[in-house]
Amino acid sequence: MERELLERLLVGNDEASVAALAALRCGGSHVVWEGTTSAGALARVYERRLRHTRRRGIETTNLAHAVDLLGRHQHPVRLGQIRAADGAWTFMLFLTDDGNRLIACTGVRRPHV
Question: In angstroms, what CA-CA distances link 10 with 14, 53, 106, 111?
């Protein structure tokens, strides 16, 4: 997916979308994978990640809301990712199956290496 299209999709005013857009505009890498996955299956996976990050004290943004949105979404989801140029954050993007609309965005702070 072209960077410009991804920028247009990240028009939300939630904290994760704003931060993901800033990371992308500041030279972050991005990928949107081919194929789709069940929104329900992703909701279960990210619910486990939410519990894990809370137990470990890992900083996230918009993760609980993304889990909620995925749990209510009734159609397949396409996945994307943005990694901040400095490696501090990784953002997961959940898109409609055609890639034309952002369903949810979440971010996780990466540990310093």
Answer: 10, 24, 12, 25
- Residues 6+ away with beta carbon under 8 Å from 77: 36, 37, 38, 39, 42, 70, 94, 95, 96, 97, 103
Joined tokens for residue 81? 């990712």
Distance CA 21, CA 19 (A): 5
Q: What is the pLDDT of residues 12-50, one digit of tens each?
A: 889 999 999 999 999 999 999 999 999 999 999 999 999
pLDDT at 78 over 90: yes
Q: How far apart are CA 84 and CA 97, in angstroms?
A: 24
The pair phi, psi for residue 61, each rounded to 5°, is: -135, 125
Q: Order of strands across the sheet with 77-83?
A: 29-32, 77-83, 89-96, 102-109, 60-61
Cα 1 to Cα 19: distance, rounded to the nearest angstrom:
19
